[in-house]
Amino acid sequence: MKFNAKNLLLAAAAILGLLAVVLVLVLAEKLLAIWHYLQQAPFWLVMVYANLLIVIALLPLWLLLKLNQKKPQQSFGPGFELNEDSLKKRLESEQSRGVDTLAAEQELVELDERRERGLFHLTLFGQASSGKSSLIQALMPEKSINTDVVKGTTTDISHHQYGQLVLADVPGFDAVDQFAFEQQALDEARRAHVVVFLLNGDLSRTEMTLFEQLKKMNKPMVLALNKMDLFSDAQQNILKQAIQEKTTKQFPVVCISTGGLESVQVIKESGEVVSTTQLRPVTIKPLIDAIEQVISGNEIALHRFRDAGFLQLAGEKLTVASNEYNDKEARKIVERHTHKAIVGALASVAPGSDLVIQGTIGTQLVRGLCQLYEVEVNQLQIDQVLKAAGGKLKTSTSLVLAISGNALKSFPGIGTAAGGIMHAVAYGLIFNSLGQAVHRTLKTQGSLQSEQAQQSFEELLLGNSQNLAKDMAKMALKISQKY
């Protein structure tokens, strides 16, 4: 018999099989012997032996579950990866392009200043008239805080230092100009170490939506039920339990009264009922204790969390500024090349069914937009986009010309001599739609994709052409008179 790999494998399998049989026989003999001894042993010894076997049998399973068990996450979500260096490099890059980066830079400047001071920032978050200003007044009675029973006293962000804490009083998110105030409040919440969410009762739908937004930021929170002097202990417990269930008991919930003014009806001796205001009782110690509990022992994590909020906010503001700059520059590029296309069309007899006649201008248009978005592109990719657009024109040239003709009807007196101008309007529509299509593709996809550009080109060319054609007609007439 030849000793090849297959025969060796079969021999090894046979030996292992024999060893397994011997092992089973030995174990069977041992188990029978143990069973024989156990039958003669007292009951307590049998139970001890049985429990020992169960523990030994379950130990591997327990170890397996322990190794695969996920470690519980800390309440503040530690694991934030700070990319401050990359953000600053991106700032420098955008500045070199001419982007207005002031808003993003201000966030980094404010972050540095707060790091240097080393204080803990709390944002008082809540709907209008939830007691934010009254809470500050209760903490710092020597300060003159503008509080009123009228909704929406706070219309700007103000900061107040209380020991090592800085409290930010933000506008109520349901005040006048709701969206702007809501965004202001959310931004300031992201800059803070901890958010104090003030409530006047159970979480409303709006409050729950904003709570979920703060939760997605992994923002540490304390929920404070204000004006609890109006409720009995039983009612407070019911409200507290309802809020804990909605927030999955992730954050402390406390009952307080921030004081402030309240409207009351007073009956005089004469029986006359008059309206007046009076001070509410102040009970804020439970909130102070809850805040101290959140901060104590978590200082480093809270600072890192604060930094992450600032960096994310700065990055978002930089993205907004970059997009605004790209939109503005893209419009200039499209308008410039549309102008060139109209000039070229006025010099030609008729527009072709593709972009070959003005292929150079089309190439420059696409390449210019790609350079704006810093997208590397080769001539083959540009040709694919132009070819796709030209293919669409084979089926829509007559429609484009018809639209151009209708646009020129808005300018009486031109007559049949407007044939060249009509062709120029058609080219204006084509290049304007092509430029917008490429811009849209680069903006949404971050790359030049011919199929998506073709689809956008078709939508733009035929979707809003009637109004756009009038603008193109004005441009063509102005150019023809100039030349």
Question: Describe it for me?
Answer:
It is built from 15 helices and ten strands. Helix 8 (233-246) links the parallel strand 5 (221-225) and strand 6 (253-255). Mean pLDDT is 77; it is low at 70-81, 147-153 and 350-354. The N and C termini lie far apart (99 Å). It has helices at residues 5-40, 43-68, 84-97, 102-117, 132-139, 178-191, 205-216, 233-246, 285-295, 299-347, 359-372, 379-408, 419-445, 450-463, 465-482, and strands spanning 120-125, 158-162, 165-169, 194-199, 221-225, 253-255, 257-258, 261-267, 273-279, 282-283. The protein has a six-stranded mixed sheet with strand order 2-3-1-4-5-6, with helices on both faces. The protein is of the alpha/beta class and 483 residues long.
Main attributes of the structure:
15 helices; 10 strands
Give the topology, please.
Layout: H1 5-40, H2 43-68, H3 84-97, H4 102-117, E1 120-125, H5 132-139, E2 158-162, E3 165-169, H6 178-191, E4 194-199, H7 205-216, E5 221-225, H8 233-246, E6 253-255, E7 257-258, E8 261-267, E9 273-279, E10 282-283, H9 285-295, H10 299-347, H11 359-372, H12 379-408, H13 419-445, H14 450-463, H15 465-482
Parallel strand pairs: 1-3, 1-4, 4-5, 5-6
Antiparallel strand pairs: 2-3, 7-10, 8-9
Helix pairs in contact: 3-10, 4-10, 10-11, 10-13, 10-15, 11-12, 11-13, 12-13, 12-14, 12-15, 13-14, 13-15
